[in-house]
């Protein structure tokens, strides 16, 4: 198969699912890992895809665009793991926490297995599945209910009403973007309202977001930068962003991601 034909197959798969992974393309197209990576390089230079860790996603940047869960789940994996490990260390046994929807919070949920006697409220189907699969008898998982979004969040009046009746020790919030003016944002207006209700239900707000979220602005603001008691991010954040965030958030925690992550992207 010619390079042009392979690249058309790659683009069609991204249009269909929102993302591709290198190992899957190697198996499907019967070529080497390096060949697929060269194809992705070509497509990225043409502005047709966005390279991410282990593959590529659709190259779009609209403030209302919301990729599906599978498309977002392959982005910045080492960074999300490093962030999740640091954030999980903030939780004390016997507390009640809230977790918003998203791929970073989904990763974060995997790091909670060792925390005993935990009550978790979430509007994420994926997060709830991870927590329930652990099989801990001392864990309570509450799923809010609501209307499902492309990122597998449950939003709308049912979710909001549930959250407004609760009082949580900490809330862990994943975001679509963060910027100096708009603050923490999302491309989904309904999700923004639900996330705001989650934030208001908690005594302490911890935002978990990797460096690629800096400068990204969704259509709706969830919270101002100053509302974050803690922001956990990774060491890929630009120096100027670090300066802004240290001045604006309560505490900035920078997790170190593996050095090889960017090279493999």
Topology, element by element:
Blueprint: H1 3-17, E1 19-21, H2 22-29, H3 33-45, E2 49-52, E3 55-58, H4 69-73, H5 77-88, E4 96-99, H6 103-110, E5 118-122, H7 125-133, E6 139-143, E7 147-148, E8 154-155, H8 157-164, E9 168-174, E10 177-179, E11 183-186, H9 189-201, E12 202-208, E13 220-223, E14 230-234, H10 239-248, E15 252-255, H11 261-264
Helix pairs in contact: 1-3, 2-3, 5-6, 6-7, 8-9
Shape summary: globular
Computed CA radius of gyration, to the nearest angstrom: 19 Å
Distance between the termini: 24 Å
Low-confidence runs of at least 5 consecutive residues: 260-265
Mean pLDDT comes to 87
How do the strands of the widest beta sheet line up side by side?
6-5-4-9-12-14-15
Which secondary-structure class do the elements indicate?
A: alpha/beta
Put simply, the count of helices is 11
Percent in strands? 15-25%
Question: How many strand units?
Answer: 15
């Amino acid at each position: 198969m010619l390079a042009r034909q392979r690249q058309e197959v790659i683009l069609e798969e991204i249009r269909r699912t929102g993302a591709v992974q290198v190992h899957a393309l190697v198996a499907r197209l019967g070529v080497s890992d390096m060949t697929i990576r060269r194809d992705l390089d070509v497509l990225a230079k043409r502005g047709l895809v966005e390279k991410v860790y282990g593959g590529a996603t659709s190259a779009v940047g609209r403030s209302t665009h919301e990729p599906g869960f599978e498309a977002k789940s392959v982005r910045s994996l080492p960074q999300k793991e490093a962030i999740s490990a640091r954030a999980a260390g903030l939780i004390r046994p016997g507390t009640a926490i809230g977790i918003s929807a998203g791929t970073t919070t989904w990763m974060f949920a995997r790091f909670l297995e060792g925390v005993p006697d935990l009550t978790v409220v979430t509007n994420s189907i994926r997060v709830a599945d991870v927590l329930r699969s652990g099989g801990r008898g001392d864990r309570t998982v509450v799923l809010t209910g609501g209307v499902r979004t492309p990122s597998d969040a449950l939003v709308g009046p049912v979710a909001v009403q549930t959250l407004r009746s609760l009082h949580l020790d900490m809330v862990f919030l994943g975001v679509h973007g963060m910027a100096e003016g708009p603050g923490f944002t999302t491309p989904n207006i309904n999700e923004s309202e639900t996330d705001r209700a989650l934030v208001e239900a908690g005594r302490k707000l911890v935002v978990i977001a990797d460096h690629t979220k800096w400068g990204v602005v969704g259509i709706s603001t969830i919270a101002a930068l100053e509302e974050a008691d803690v922001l956990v991010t990774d060491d890929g954040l630009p120096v100027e962003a670090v300066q802004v965030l240290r001045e604006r958030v309560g505490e900035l925690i920078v997790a170190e991601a593996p050095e090889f992550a960017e090279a493999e992207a």
